[in-house]
């Protein structure tokens, strides 16, 4: 939702009862950051409020709802500081630029991988796409499992897999702040080498 050209993809989000976000992905921040935005705070309070004798001194502190009463954790470290501080120090511009780059890289990969003989899934909405190679002989799912193993064993880039309607697909998720065009080109090269190796 940071990028105007993607806002249409999130149309209707305002009707959600709750939204979970992972700033360690789309905002490229540290692991351990996550947020759940819940519209019905009263229901959240009713679900998590706990009254115990050892907490009786806090019962009259009603200037605002206590975070301890709004989640399963009674005590927790201030994870939100990691996100707040980064946004305060750098502003939104570098985060928008980084996200825009990753989306462009994913679309670049989506177009390029088709030119090397791979089948692709739907056009990426954001920065994740699916693709698979259909060999001339043998089981395609087995071939693609071996291809994922080949790329991961090679170690220069990392890809993962998923299964959609019982079909094995390879998955590219462009979400690391370290991923740039040279990384995507290297991924294409390693995949091409893997196909050649497994097709022998």
Alpha carbon gap, first and last residue: 46 Å
| Strand portion | 5-15%
Total count of helical runs of at least 4 residues:
6
* Nearest-integer average pLDDT: 87
Structural class: alpha+beta
Q: What letter string, H or E per element, gives the SSE order?
A: EHEHHHEEHEEH
Low-confidence stretches: none
* Range of helix content: 25-40%
Please report the total strand number as a whole number.
Answer: 6
Measured on Cα atoms, how large is the radius of gyration? 22 Å
Give me some keywords for this one.
single chain; 200 residues; alpha+beta; two-stranded antiparallel sheet; 14% strand
Mind explaining what this structure looks like?
- It is a single chain.
- The chain has 200 residues and is an alpha+beta fold.
- 39% of the residues lie in helices and 14% in strands.
- It contains six helices and six strands; from the N terminus they run βαβαααββαββα.
- The strands form two sheets. A four-stranded antiparallel beta sheet has the order 3-4-6-5. Strands 1-2 form a two-stranded antiparallel ribbon.
- A hairpin with a 7-residue loop joins strand 3 and strand 4.
- The chain is elongated.
- The termini are far apart.
Short description:
Helix content is 39%, strand content 14%. The protein is α+β, with helices and mostly antiparallel strands and 200 residues long. The model has no long low-confidence stretch (mean pLDDT 87).
What are the SSEs and their pairings?
Elements: E1 18-21, H1 23-26, E2 35-38, H2 41-48, H3 80-90, H4 93-114, E3 118-120, E4 128-133, H5 140-154, E5 160-164, E6 167-173, H6 181-198
Helix pairs in contact: 4-6, 5-6
